[in-house]
Predict the 3D structure of the following.
Amino acid sequence: MGNTFQFIWEVNLIEWLQSIFSSNAAIQIWSVISMFGEEMVCVAILGFFYWGLDKETGKFIGTNVVVNTVFNPFLKNIFNRRRPYFDNTGINILKPVDADADIYDIAAQGYSFPSGHSSSSATVFGSLYIKAKKSLFRILILLIPFLVGVSRFVLGAHYPTDVLVGWLLGAVIVIFVPLLRKKISNDCLFYGILALAGLPGFFFCTSYDFYSGYGLMIGVSIGFMFEEKFVKFNNTKNLLLCIVRTVIGGALFLGLNALLKLPFSKEFLEDASKLSQIVKTIRYVVISFAVVGLYPMAFKLFKKQ
């Protein structure tokens, strides 16, 4: 299942790097670096700004991030490129996307092209780069997605060309989504266009990440509009309070995700059927709306008390 297309230099580069970084300590370091492109780190950064420090910056980052969560797997399911360890015995997968699933289960592990971690980190930190004012901070920001991208092929999860196109996708999103937002001031129309653009994925996408990403985009979009109309919470410059809000929000995200899985069997949740995929989408709509739209209501309640 899936397509294999590769350049010999990519395979040679991955094998060479894995021979250099073969110690457990090196693998752990690259695994930690890779985490800066993962879902929960992106949620934490988005949450720190949205729930705490600067709501408008949080919305800017959040909109770009959820667009990436849809269109990265959208592209992956068009190209259907198999991960490098599928077809090259000299390449080891040192950090699977889903550690609980079979490493050769494409529905769980996802396709390879483009790299989701690379596009996610480019989107998050590219958004921060635009908002940042200090030159040194901007340099450090750009270094993170570079290291995340390198970690993906050191760990055997991606080809270098996956990473290059992932960076490119993140850059395109960070540039063009805000431009589209400036052209379309109506929230419903703007978010509706994004939703319609991703909708064709339901007809051909088979990997789980598209359906969770689409659910995130819809839930976050509705949550932003709900908050702006009904909640209107205030940010805080108190760093400790920003961290507390972020930790609670992240715990709520994880807790709701676990809770909403309870009515379904493990076999159903891991099934690649269309019904299972739609349930996954709905689950992420509910989770993201709850943490983006409803959770901030608690800020005003505690402030009054």
